[in-house]
């Protein structure tokens, strides 16, 4: 049991170190994937389009850097900016969403990349604290499992 806990502890520790070392690559990869999701965005319910809509609705953002990123997509030429960018669903018409100047006061203008990364960075202290707490419990479990094993080994010939 102690070996199993030690293995899990090492895996989590390695994952944390790799995540910290490659955090800039993770950001770059996320930005390129978000750009790809915008480029391939469509009205059919695929996972990437749903993810973009969820991010835009939840964080009140639009596009990668700003709302004008949608202008370079095929979706914009057909339908304009998606409804998930609208501040109020009642106030957004299709005509407004097809024109960037008309859409600006009615949609979120901030880009999602900065908001997602800043939200993640602001929550990192909470994640680090929880991870440290779990690591402490794992270390206590490893120590207690070793103590129990030692106790059983020392008392194996004792009569009960």
From TrEMBL:
Coiled coil: none annotated. It is found in: Membrane. The chain crosses the membrane at residues 126-152. The keyword Glycoprotein applies. It is a multi-pass membrane protein. InterPro entries: Tetraspanin/Peripherin, Tetraspanin_EC2_sf, TSN6/7_LEL. It comes from the Eukaryota. Keywords: Glycoprotein, Membrane, Signal, Transmembrane, Transmembrane helix. Its main location: membrane. May be involved in cell proliferation and cell motility. This is Tetraspanin-7. The gene is Tspan6.
